[in-house]
Amino acid sequence: MQRFKAAAAAAAAVFFLAACTPGAATSLEAVQDQGTLTIGTEGTYRPFSFHEDGVGDLTGYDVEIARAVAGKLGVEARFGEAPWDALFAGLNAGRFAMVANQVSITPERVDSYEFSDPYTVSPGVVVVPKGDTSITSFADLAGKTTAQSLSSNWYVLAQENGASVEAVEGWAQSVSLLEQGRVDATVNDRLTFLDYILQRPDAPIQVAAETDDPALMAFAFTKGNTELRNAVNQALKELREDGTLAEISNKYFGEDVSQ
User: Fold this and answer.
1) pLDDT single digits (tens) 112-124
2) pTM across the whole model
3) What angle in degrees, to the nearest 10, is found between the helix axes of 84-92 and 7-20?
4) Alpha carbons 239 and 142: distance in angstroms, whole number
5) Scanning 6, 21, 23, 64, which has its CA 20 to 30 A from the CA of 13?
């Protein structure tokens, strides 16, 4: 799921974090001594990190998994909320021990941060009207019309496969045009599709094809903070084995997206 943040808002949030947030315990030893794992997250990114109705307690897929990890470490999870760009500024400044916000593992980020083992796996998907059999692969998008946000990587993927793209603001508009029969397909990530279907199980759409290289999302840590990362990996391993990850996944997406 793509997020695009204004630089001015991020800069303001960084100033707020620096001015108002005390330094967090960031090493494994310090986290254990303090009894608190401080976690950066947006808090406005449903269904991963959000407040129910905008005012309730912080919850979401990433939030619940982070809390479960903290429990395995024997400490309390404490969340600090900030816009996307400011999360990494806060991590670098020692305001957070880790970031839990669907951070995808990329070569560029690996150069700057440590990452846990993935707790979300999400391929790109082609979504078509239910019952449509004319599209069964990305190659079948050639000559078809898809609805895509022009600022997303899915727009590029659709174009590369020969689709004619109708520009939209995001998923909501894309799926609306698809359900109205005004476009042939839309390309997005599987998590977006699953979240929509969980909310609208009777929606007349289906997945026609998936990419072979899914995005992998993980917790992010400062470079060199390997002891905390390793402890979190052990916690994730235990949560995977005892079924907790699958349970949280099914709650938010209707299937296990953790592997």
Assistant:
1) 999 999 999 999 9
2) 0.88
3) 40
4) 42
5) 64
